[in-house]
Amino acid sequence: MKKIKILTGLLLFVLPVFSQKIITPDAAIQAALQNHPSVKAATFGVQAKKYEEKTALNLPNPEVNVESPTGEFYAVGVLQSFEFPTVYSRQKQVAKAETALAQASQRVSENDLRYMVRSLYLETQVAEFQAQQWRDRDTLYQQIAATAARQFASGEIDFLQKTLVENEAGKVHQERVAVEITTSGLYVRLRELTGLNDLASIQPLSPDTIKPFSPPGSNTNPAVLYEQQIVQVAESQVKLAKSRALPNFSLGYLNQGVQSTPIDYRFRASVGIPLWAGQYRAGRQAAESEAQAAQSRAEAQTQVISLEQERIVGEHIIALNQVDYYQREALPRSRALIDAAVRMREAGQVDYVTFLRTLDEAYAIQRDYVAQVNALNTAHIQLLYLYGQ
What is the reported pTM? Predict the structure, then answer.
């Protein structure tokens, strides 16, 4: 019976651990894309532009009038005006281009959100890794402080060494508390960003050893594609401005004669002559200037992204080499320093001043390693962002 109770207790202790679902970066991104308001807003923006495509054929309302042209009876008439047919086809092209622009804006929003989630996820991983480092260090320092207190009580060390050890142990404990609070806050932010209120655990920090890669194709950055789509909209606006200089028409029906006037003579038609060419020319020139400006902005954005890609690739290579060095040499050296320092202190071969300084240098190597892993993974995230992935 006692064994059964022990097994039951162990199961109750272990089950919550297994019940915690580890959220991967991809799962966090997918959840954010489904729940974040910015993506929903971009989706509604695309829907609005698709509805606006149906308004491209924006005929004016027909005019129904009642007149007494001869002073003898009232005649009912109707008049319908419309632009040159090319205007409507050009308006349709502009509307479709603006829909494509809204879709490009949606891809920019999604790419920005993926970058935000990946960056926050990495920040949480780093904080959690650092929290574990400080917990390990805090455990060791508390043991050292307890040992120093016993040695002081037995007269083996002086007050100065005891106080120095207690001060260092207190500082390490405060660092542990601070990073644990930071980690909890990052989890809260990650839950809010992804909409996963049950998010309790993420993957542990590990260096991304993927070598720098090239984009899958030219001009894959959503910001560049967005600027290029603005060029398409501007070019469609130029064509529309040119078509507005074409004649417009109106057709109508009104009996302006006696009641016995034949049906054939009751219809009317008119042509609007684009006589004021200056205003149409100014509209076309304004549209052409805007198209040229959009083209220049697209070229500038392409150049900015290209330069940024080259810079990030360089940083990625540097960080990859640094991480490789730390894994091969620095981290083993750090662990060896800690082990040797502890043995020498236990053997009384070094005083506490030298001992604590050695430990601080060894743990500084571990902190630098985390910083290099963070730099490596950040560079990879930035490359994914620049490539629109």
Answer: 0.82
